[in-house]
Amino acid sequence: MTTRSQPSLEADSRKSVLEKILRDLLQQFHSETGTIHSLDSGAQLLQLAAQIGLPPQVVEVVKTIPVGKGIAGQVVAQNKPVTICNLQNDSSGVAKPGARQTGVGGALCVPIRDGTQLVGTLGIGTVRQYEYTPEETLRLEEMGRQIVPILKG
Which residue among 48, 50, 145, 149 sits deepest, i.e. has the most Cβ atoms within 10 Å of its Cβ? Predict the structure, then answer.
């Protein structure tokens, strides 16, 4: 194996591990969709690291998200969790119109922090209308902290 293929293998392995974590997390939260984005703070962009359950056309849209745009971008801009009870009827302006293509009702996205440094976002969603509780938000934030070493690779 050449050194040239090594980063690709490492990235694929990291993605597989993150997808497994997402699957387990979605089962715990009785949710159907999940995303993990890493933050490129210099470029002010979130890069999709892993996802479960999103339609292909939505995956294309969320591969790169500018800070401040959409739910994950707002999490970074505000440096706090964002939750929406019913994405299909949301009129707050946080969720972009294309987000309805996910079929998600309730959504929760939290910052992933390495200590005090924001390094990404962790988002989950369910097809039913649902308001995630403060306890669930704290639990998801804790899970985000636990995946920092994998996300940062």
Answer: 50
